[in-house]
């Protein structure tokens, strides 16, 4: 039978583009209102806020996240190579801006260990290039005096040149300058990606690749914190192979370990891990998570302060954390040029984690998000805070899960968390002066439990999909052993190569008929299939395009056990020899056989079929090479009196075949070459025979 296609209405693309342009350029009060409300989603949902229904859940989740956020912010400052005050600024501004611009109700945006690590690596590299000492206990620079009015004068000054101008600035001043410039550029990238609707970029970051990247970065984070755990002073490694170099330095200096820090770290890790395990086991009975990190920080600070651990045992402490806000400052343009390349992977990873978590929450709680608006929200969560001495942010999985489990309903909870951080900024920050850095390192390491547990999932992941497991291992290894940026690049490239290889060498099969049915399946995969006399049914499970053309032909020739080109050449060779013998008048052929015997030999015994049916149900598209390939095999097999029939083609493939001239000028042969089911093609082939 023949199915008649619907007549497609031709669209005047020029008129359509002009209409869209006219509509986008028009400015009416209603349109301006919609633009503003789309840019600030809070204006849509806040007037509809159900206070009695939502407020207590938002307050509870906001307080819990705020309590967790303060110790984590202080701890993650070690990863970023910056003072704790900057982490608190970051957490405060990110929550406020995402409240105004975000479309997810449950995502917790703020400081994130992986992003902090990437910022810290850039900061450390630029500090080294500027001639600064990366030792944490190095004296602050002269430029740091301007940060807070109550700071004591510093004695060490560093001179370097930026843009041809001599600048005098201290280590801390330069470090936060690098971080804010990096954050600003990353935010600009994200906003530009939002303007040009490039949110689809995140689709190329597969789940396996992101998991491997996070796990590899977690190993780097853990390695960077070991020196704080045991209280040794080693240089902060930079460049490729940082993980291996750091461990070599740790073992070389293990004898210098600070006993006080070792004991403190052991106690803190035991307490934190025990509390986390108990919390996970009895989470269905707990209304909100235990604030273990805050309790550990408070107790450790009191013990350190009253035990004089810094003076008596030389235990490294956080130092002075000033209160209030530093006056805003425009990020340095010269520094932006230095970190422009580093900001790109930072922007992509920040956006990818935020959107994936937003989509996860939206699916779970049955609402929708706008990925492009999320791009704007995360971008401005980086751009605006960069003027207030903050660094890059992203959504964090652990805090998001806590937020949803404690009754969060809307982003009002983010404002509550910001108020908790603000209270610490204004009043409580100096109380953390005596907090040991080893305690902060313990909090960071214990927070990596989730990422490090991914190693236990490798056997199950391998059982589900071997290729995805390979992507995970390659990305994780590159991120840990080379660098996070290289690991991200390797992961993306390797994931794409896996897709390309899958389409270049897809599954191919010969099909047999399921008994007493009109259906056909892989003869090697299923039992009790009957073959069709004189007919071969070939399935190719991928698009047919230039990259897999040769594989298509090789597979077809191998499974049918016939290469039409070789067979045609062999026949021509025998015909030529036979003609030569006939001219000589000899009835014996070149190989010593009689004419009748030679003619019999010209029909190969291995050709036991007269029709090939190509099952195109898995061929999603054809390019020019694909169409030419089908035309080529049709022509080659026709010389051997073998028909090539196509079955189960989708409309896109049919259109490609029409445009490529496969069915002739007037599509006259279409009904004899194209069939809508394999069974129809089989019946036609039988009638043909």
From TrEMBL:
Segments crossing the lipid bilayer: 54-76, 96-119, 174-200, 212-230, 335-355, 376-398, 410-428, 472-501
Signal peptide positions (record): none
Any GO CC annotation of this UniProt entry: apical plasma membrane
Keyword Transmembrane helix found: yes
Coiled-coil parts of chain: none
Catalytic reactions of this protein: nitrate(in) + chloride(out) = nitrate(out) + chloride(in); iodide(in) + chloride(out) = iodide(out) + chloride(in); sulfate(out) + 2 chloride(in) = sulfate(in) + 2 chloride(out); bromide(in) + chloride(out) = bromide(out) + chloride(in)
Compartments, as annotated in UniProt: Apical cell membrane
STAS domain location: 525-685
Gene Ontology MF terms in the entry: secondary active sulfate transmembrane transporter activity
Any Pfam family: Sulfate_transp
Keywords: Cell membrane, Glycoprotein, Membrane, Phosphoprotein, Transmembrane, Transmembrane helix, Transport
Topological type in the membrane: Multi-pass membrane protein
Gene3D superfamilies, per database record: STAS domain (3.30.750.24)
Family per record: Belongs to the SLC26A/SulP transporter (TC 2.A.53) family.
Name assigned to this protein: Sulfate transporter
């Amino acid at each position: 039978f023949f199915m008649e296609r619907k007549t497609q209405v031709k669209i005047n693309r020029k008129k359509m583009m002009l209409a869209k342009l006219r509509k986008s350029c028009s400015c009416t009060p209603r349109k301006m209102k919609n633009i503003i409300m789309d840019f600030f989603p809070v204006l849509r949902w806040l007037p509809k806020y159900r206070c009695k229904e939502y407020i207590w859940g938002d307050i509870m989740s906001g307080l819990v996240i705020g309590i967790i956020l303060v110790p984590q912010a202080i701890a993650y400052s070690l990863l970023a190579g910056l003072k704790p005050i900057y982490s608190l600024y970051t957490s405060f501004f990110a929550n406020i801006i995402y409240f105004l611009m975000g479309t997810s109700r449950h995502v917790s945006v703020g400081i994130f260990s992986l992003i902090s690590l990437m910022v810290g690596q850039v900061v450390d590299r630029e500090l080294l290039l500027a001639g600064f000492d990366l030792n944490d206990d190095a004296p602050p620079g002269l430029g740091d005096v301007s940060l807070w009015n109550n700071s004591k004068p510093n004695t060490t000054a560093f001179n370097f040149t930026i843009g041809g101008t001599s600048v005098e600035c201290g280590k801390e001043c330069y470090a936060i300058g690098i971080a804010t410039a990096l954050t600003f550029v990353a935010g600009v990238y994200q906003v530009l990606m939002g303007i040009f609707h490039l949110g689809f970029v995140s689709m190329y970051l597969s789940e396996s690749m992101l998991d491997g990247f996070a796990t590899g970065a977690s190993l780097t984070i853990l390695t960077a914190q070991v020196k704080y755990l045991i209280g040794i002073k080693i240089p902060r490694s930079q460049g490729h192979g940082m993980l291996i170099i750091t461990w070599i330095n740790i073992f070389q200096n293990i004898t210098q370990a600070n006993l006080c820090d070792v004991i403190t770290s052991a106690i803190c890790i035991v307490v934190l891990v025990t509390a986390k395990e108990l919390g996970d086991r009895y989470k269905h009975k707990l209304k909100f998570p235990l604030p273990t990190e805050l309790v550990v920080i408070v107790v450790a600070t009191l013990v350190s302060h009253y035990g004089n651990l810094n003076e008596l045992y030389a235990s490294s402490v956080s130092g002075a954390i000033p209160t209030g806000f530093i006056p805003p400052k425009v990020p340095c343009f010269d520094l932006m040029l230095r970190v422009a390349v580093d900001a790109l992977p930072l922007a992509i990873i920040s956006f990818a984690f935020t959107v994936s978590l937003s989509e996860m929450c939206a699916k779970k709680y049955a609402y929708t998000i706008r990925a492009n608006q999320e791009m704007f929200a995360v971008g401005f969560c980086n751009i605006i805070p960069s003027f207030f001495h903050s660094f890059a942010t992203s959504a964090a999985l652990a805090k998001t899960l806590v937020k949803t489990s404690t009754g969060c309903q809307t982003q009002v909870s983010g404002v509550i968390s910001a108020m908790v951080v603000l209270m610490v900024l204004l009043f409580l920050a100096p109380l953390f002066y005596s907090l040991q850095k080893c305690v902060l390192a313990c909090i960071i390491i214990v927070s990596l439990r989730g990422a490090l547990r991914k190693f236990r999932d490798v056997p199950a992941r391998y059982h589900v999909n071997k290729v995805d497991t390979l992507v995970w291992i390659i990305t994780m290894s590159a991120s840990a052993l080379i660098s996070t940026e290289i690991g991200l690049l390797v992961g993306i490239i390797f994931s794409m190569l896996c897709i390309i290889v899958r389409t270049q060498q897809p599954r191919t099969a010969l099909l047999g008929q399921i008994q007493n049915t009109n259906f056909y399946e892989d003869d090697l995969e299923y039992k009790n299939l009957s073959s069709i006399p004189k007919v071969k049914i070939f399935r190719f499970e991928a698009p047919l395009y230039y990259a897999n053309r040769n594989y298509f032909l090789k597979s077809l020739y191998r499974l049918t056990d016939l290469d039409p080109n070789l067979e045609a050449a062999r026949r021509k060779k025998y015909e030529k020899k036979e003609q030569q013998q006939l001219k000589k008048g000899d009835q014996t052929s070149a190989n010593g056989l009689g004419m009748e015997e030679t003619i019999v030999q010209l029909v190969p015994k291995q050709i036991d079929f007269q029709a090939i049916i190509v099952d195109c149900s898995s061929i999603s598209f054809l390019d020019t090479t694909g169409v030419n390939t089908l035309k080529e095999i049709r022509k080659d097999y026709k010389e051997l009196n073998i028909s090539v029939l196509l079955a189960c083609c989708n409309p896109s493939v049919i259109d490609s075949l029409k445009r490529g001239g496969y069915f002739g000028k007037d599509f006259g042969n279409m009904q004899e070459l194209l069939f809508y089911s394999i069974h129809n093609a089989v019946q036609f082939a039988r009638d043909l025979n």
